[in-house]
Amino acid sequence: MSSLPLPALPPRLPSRVLVTGGAGFIGSALVWALNQLGVERIVVTDRLGRDEKWRNLVPLRFEDYLEADDLMAPLTSGALGHFDLVLHLGACSATTELDATYLAQNNFAYTKHLAHWALGHEVRFVYASSAATYGDGALGMDDRDNSTAGLSRLRPLNAYGYSKHLFDQYAAGMGVLPNVVGLKYFNVYGPNEAHKADMRSLVHKAFGQIEETGRVKLFKSHRPDFRDGEQRRDFLYIKDAIAMTLHLAMSPEAGGLYNIGSGEAHTWLELTGALFTALGKAPVIDFIEMPESIRAKYQYHTQAEIAKLRATGYTAAVTPLADAVRDYVQGYLVGDHRLGD
């Protein structure tokens, strides 16, 4: 439904791929991108639950689907056959999740089991970490120090970020981090995120607000050094995120942690302005109080350092914010389309 293509990728394609979280936002986008490259020997796992995440799978081509809790037994027994790439996107990504035990089991222990299997079978293992591991960013957001000591200095602000940080630290401590690829995704937005409820991007939420009321609500700033709407994020379009992901997956020399971001910070006002422009409307914004429950954990500025990614040979330009928002709005949100429709 869109005229904006997937950025060019190197020709080193996997023959058979396991994608966990493959019905989710980034996972289903990866399956779509692999399909665009002619890769269809894909096994997808997820927890479909009661939302409409299943709709992301409808246009995609893959061999088999398993619920996530049914994966490990046939995988470890060999019943699922050979894979040469695991893209592990399956996780609870809710930054507001308070059940730390659930996060430790679902995001940390599951990742450990899958990583040990992949390493033991010499299968390329690529997993989703998160920019949430950086906490408030006071120590910077540089992905180059992958040492145990370097990672131990980070202070995630929420249980989700900590669950991701746990595996980064574990892999570093076990000495296997250079043999896998961990992806610290920043603020990714784009088609196939409709099921994410409160974790949807502002673009998706604001599109619905504009359709309903003609206005957008943004949080007021509670820091004197940031005016309302000028909190800044590193926003990255999903098509760039998956191009970066597959580039690293297909680059055997790549290993360790990598920031997946645009390398540039934009304000919420810039993002909403691009949305209104894509809809041909003048901006109308209301500033509302930020809930007390998130004020102490709110990130006011995120910006990925992507020199390490560039050093692996990723040369594609990042899609400009206005172009990406227009592609998302006009190609997908209007008409409620998924990737591959």
Automatic annotation (TrEMBL):
Gene name as annotated: hldD
Residues holding substrate: N187, D198, K205, F219, K220, S221, H222, R233, Y298
Binding site for NADP(+): F25, I26, D46, R47, K53, L89, G90, A91, C92, S93, N106, K164, V188, K196
InterPro entries in the cross-refs: Epimerase_deHydtase (IPR001509), Heptose_epim (IPR011912), NAD(P)-bd_dom_sf (IPR036291)
Sections of the chain in a coiled coil: none
EC number(s) recorded for this UniProt protein: 5.1.3.20
Protein name: ADP-L-glycero-D-manno-heptose-6-epimerase
Manner of cofactor binding, per the entry note: Binds 1 NADP(+) per subunit.
SUPFAM superfamilies (alphabetical): NAD(P)-binding Rossmann-fold domains
UniProt source species: Gemmatimonas phototrophica
Reactions accelerated catalytically: ADP-D-glycero-beta-D-manno-heptose = ADP-L-glycero-beta-D-manno-heptose
NCBIfam families found in the cross-reference section: heptose_epim
Functional note: Catalyzes the interconversion between ADP-D-glycero-beta-D-manno-heptose and ADP-L-glycero-beta-D-manno-heptose via an epimerization at carbon 6 of the heptose.
Pathway(s) where this gene product acts: Nucleotide-sugar biosynthesis; ADP-L-glycero-beta-D-manno-heptose biosynthesis; ADP-L-glycero-beta-D-manno-heptose from D-glycero-beta-D-manno-heptose 7-phosphate: step 4/4
Sample GO molecular function, one term: NADP binding
UniProt entry keywords in alphabetical sequence: Carbohydrate metabolism, Isomerase, NADP
